[in-house]
Amino acid sequence: MARKKTRARRTRAHAPRVPETVTVYFSCMRGAWPDQNPRKQKRYPVIFAAWWSGHPARDPFRAPDDSGTAIGREYVAGIVEAFVKAFHGWNVELVELPAEWVRAWRRMLEGRPPWPVPRGSSGPGPSRAGARAPRPKWAPTPPRRPGRHDWAERLGVTLPCTADEIARAYRKRAFECHPDRGGSAAEFVALTRAREAAMAHVGAA
Fold first, then answer.
1. Domain containing 197 — which CATH number?
2. Cis status, amide bond into 160, omega within 30 of 0
3. Full residue range of the structural domain in which residue 53 is found
4. Is the domain of 155 the same as that of 100?
5. What is the pLDDT of residues 84-94, one digit of tens each?
């Protein structure tokens, strides 16, 4: 009876696969996404956006590959690096971008243009490659101190009022007009001056 000839399989020694190295751009800031749960916002007060399929573009705005929340700014780089390594197996080279990029993505999620339109212009913000959008700057000189009743109108309180009512009104207005949330720097400084005048008025009463 003839025996079947078996061919010995030759094993080739394959070189170990070297992970690809990609550049990951990320941007973070203190804030919240439009649909974020208030409880989650209190626990994770930092939002971030990350791009790894290519460099983020300004015009047209390129949506990030991923976005999320973090406990603090110091944790964002580790979260992005761990995510990309776990799901893609790449070596990561991190590049941090200014906060205006994640702010632009949040504006798009809110249904607004990514870059604020400059005053006196009907078109969008700067579209040059690599150009930076105008960022709010603190006023070089503080505005005039509010008068006797200006602070009550600015804070949105009625006289007479207590220190607790002033503190609550200030926190509410500061949340709306803070420069990091798209407000005016001059308005925020005026609001702070109004709170100081209000506290002085309550202390003298």
1. 1.10.287.110
2. yes
3. 21-109
4. no
5. 877 777 788 88
